Amino acid sequence: MSETLGFDTLQVHAGNRPDPATGARQVPIYQTTAFVFRDADHAAKLFNLQEVGYIYSRLTNPTVSALAERVAALEGGAGAVCCSSGHAAQIMALFPLMQPGCNVVAANKLYGGTIQQLGNTIRKFGWSAKFVDFDDLKAVEAAVDENTRAIFCESIANPGGYITDLDAIAKIANKVGLPLIVDNTSASPYLCNPIKHGATLVVHSATKYLTGNGTVTGGIVVDSGKFDWSASGKFPSLAAPEPAYHGLNFHAALGGMAFTFHSIAVGLRDLGMTMNPQGAHYTLMGIETLSLRMERHVANAKKVAEWLEKDSRIDAVTYAGLPSSPYHSRIARICPKGAGALFTFAVKGGYDACVKLIDSVKLFSHVANLGDARSLIIHSASTTHRQLSPEQQIAAGAGPNVVRVSIGIEDPADIIADLDQALAKATA
Ligand SMILES: *Cc1c(COP(=O)(O)O)cnc(C)c1O
Questions:
Q1: Which residues line ligand 1 (CB under 6 A)?
Q2: How many CB atoms lie within 10 A of CB 244?
Q3: Is it the case that residue 146 has pLDDT exceeding 80?
Q4: In the chain, which end has fewer C-beta atoms inside a 10 angstrom radius, N or C?
Q5: Is residue 1 part of a domain?
């Protein structure tokens, strides 16, 4: 679809064409495992990547492909691959780049589960991560060594209130010749397009704002198509004969689509972290209203953050949309339509008051999720960031006196009233 179309048009139309079999206006849910080949020659061409088509739904499926195309269009990418979860998307992003002994330089302000995944679990593959404060640009560059294969951060970083200077990080990635991977979950493509700031790969948890209603677990990797995988000799899976795919050199054969095709032909084929067509359908439905929801999320978050900041029961509010935030000045450049709807606030009374607050809310849901139409609340230190050390919790912005909220699209007065009554109980 034309790149000149606006975001609101693309979110409804990209990847959606009338179904060739029935003329169905909406993308049908192709609930099928396999696709019949026209003949033996057709089958052989599909397996050789000489012709693009559908073989088996672990690899590709028309409903899932429509979603990949839509998110690629919204992010300004060349291609995309859908996965079973946001965490699957992160592994799928790293998989073609890494070998045993390789590392990724990652921001220390990340979703708690990502700190676990990169800090501990990927070691089982022989990979590792070095966590660095991404405001310390010298430290980021110094952390890169000859075995580094990627730089990883979030645009608006979990648990909220932090905006990464993507331009500055991309400049370093460019200088050292490595791909920059940006988790754009908390911003959504409506608020931020990391590829415009120099990102190579963008990962999403579709579980959050993209679907927007808390019904799906899914993930997506978008490739800019712009990285030269052949330049450094560091990416043999993409730019040398790949033994996992009968010696095909993906970059030589497919150019800007090398990452996307490798992710399908090898990544999904062998790791199997595939999105199902039902999940893709719900996410497609959600994305149709992404811009409308994000506008309301941002407007509500701003109102709630402003109210909290003035309240005497609160010690601090870390929302980049507030002029008091040290990251406020980055909004105009990185996410000009708003700083998202995820932030934390510190409650006078510390850990105990936070727990009481969580137990006293009525409208807010106490869940380990974000980006739902409903307002959500969690005490990160006792839940999502529980397995981190106290130092890691504080570095990640999830100290014991801090509550994280994901502000929904309800009436802002009702959201504020609920926090007001719960704070009264928590600080009584
Ligand atoms: C939720 C989330 C993830 C993980 O996504 P899942 O779909 O839960 O696997 C990764 N990064 C961020 C920023 C998230 O919010």
A1: 85-87, 111, 113-114, 154, 158, 183, 185-186, 205, 207-208, 217, 219, 370
A2: 14
A3: yes
A4: C
A5: no
CA of 152 to the centre of ligand 1 (A): 14
Q: Is 62 within a domain?
A: yes
Domain termination site, one of 267, 286, 305: 286
Residue nearest to atom 5 of ligand 1 (CA): 86
Which of 261, 286, 311 represents a domain boundary (last residue)? 286
Mean pLDDT, residues 316-342: 96
**Residue 247 region by backbone torsions, left for phi larger than 0, else alpha for psi between -120 and 50, else beta:** left
- Taking residues 326-351, what's their average pLDDT? 95
The pLDDT, as a whole number, for residue 1 is: 52
Q: Do residues 275 and 413 both lie within one domain?
A: no
Distance 86 CA to ligand 1 centre (A): 5
Give the dihedral sign, CA 77/327/398/351: negative
213 CA distance to ligand 1 middle (Å): 15
CATH of the domain at 28: 3.40.640.10
Pick from 311, 294, 310, 92: nearest CA to 212 = 294
pLDDT single digits (tens) 161-197: 899 999 999 999 999 999 999 999 999 999 999 999 9
Q: Mean pLDDT across the stretch 266-283? A: 97
Tokens of 118: 């990169």
User: How many alpha carbons lie under 13 Å from residue 249 in its C-beta half-sphere?
Assistant: 11
Q: Please count the structural domains in the chain.
A: 2
The residue range of the domain holding 112 is 7-286
* In-domain check, residue 2: no
- Quote the ligand 1 centre to 268 CA distance (angstroms): 19
Kindly state whether residues 319 and 215 are assigned to the same domain.
no
Nearest-CA residue for ligand 1 atom 6 is: 86
- Going by C-alpha positions, the residue among 180, 122, 176 that lies closest to residue 154 is 180
Instruction: For the chain, give the percent of residues with pLDDT over 90.
Output: 88
Counting from 1 in the atom list of ligand 1, the atom nearest the Cα of 217 is 7
How high is the pLDDT of residue 3?
A: 58
Distance CA 374, CA 225 (A): 35
* CATH number where 382 lies: 3.90.1150.10
Answering whether pTM is above 0.85, one says yes
Q: Residue 208 and residue 125: Cα distance in Å, rounded?
A: 28
Task: Among 71, 85, 87, name the best residue to mutate to test ligand 1's pocket (greatest count of ligand atoms within 8 A of Cβ).
Answer: 87
pLDDT in tens, 18-71: 998 999 999 999 999 999 999 999 999 988 888 889 999 999 999 999 999 999
